[in-house]
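Worked example 3 (structure in, sequence out).
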């Protein structure tokens, strides 16, 4: 798996296709409201736990070893619900689907952060906020219709997930957008396969 001298990596949870399909249907309805947005491909969506960034190839195996030591006592439970914007509805840069999760999701993200710090991978300074990115905006202009539609969908339910493993992904930036591939899977609950 040689991909040049460095790889762009992140750690994430996957989620069920049933949730993905409902989000895909909603995105199809929202796209005409904000044509200049860069919409994420639903098949590439994931729940990011840690963005690692570019690392040299020789750091790959140490990262895999560090991630392999992470264990929790129970699966992570997530409900996918509602839409919102970062940093705010008034100046949106990202449109997201919210995630209500069991407390151990934040614990999992923190454990991953701490496991990677000794490998000189910097810890995130912001609080972990689980979400699915739906779209990005270069400018907050002409987002009014989308923001208004999202306000009506704050309690829309896309389903739930119960995850027992996370994945190390590679992100390859292309003209058509980022392409993601799963490199390794890590069961984090004892007895889960």
């Amino acid at each position: 798996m040689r991909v040049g001298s460095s790889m762009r990596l992140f750690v994430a949870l996957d989620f069920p296709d049933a949730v993905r399909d409902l989000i895909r249907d909603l995105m199809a309805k929202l796209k005409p409201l904000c044509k200049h947005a860069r919409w994420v491909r639903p098949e590439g969506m994931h729940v990011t736990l840690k963005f690692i960034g570019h690392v040299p190839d020789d750091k790959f195996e140490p990262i895999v070893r560090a991630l392999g030591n992470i264990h929790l006592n129970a699966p992570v439970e997530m409900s996918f619900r509602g839409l919102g914007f970062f940093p705010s509805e008034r100046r949106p840069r990202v449109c997201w689907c919210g995630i209500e999760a069991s407390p151990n999701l934040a614990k999992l993200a923190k454990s991953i952060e701490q496991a990677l710090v000794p490998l000189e991978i910097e810890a995130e300074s912001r609080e972990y906020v689980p979400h699915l990115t739906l779209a990005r905006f270069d400018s907050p202009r002409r987002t009014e219709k989308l923001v208004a539609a999202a306000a009506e969908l704050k309690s829309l339910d896309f389903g739930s997930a119960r995850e027992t493993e996370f994945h190390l992904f590679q992100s390859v930036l292309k003209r058509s957008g980022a392409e993601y591939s799963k490199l390794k899977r890590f069961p984090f609950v004892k007895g889960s396969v």
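Notes: The longest helix spans residues 17-30. The helical segments are 17-30, 60-67, 104-116, 144-151.
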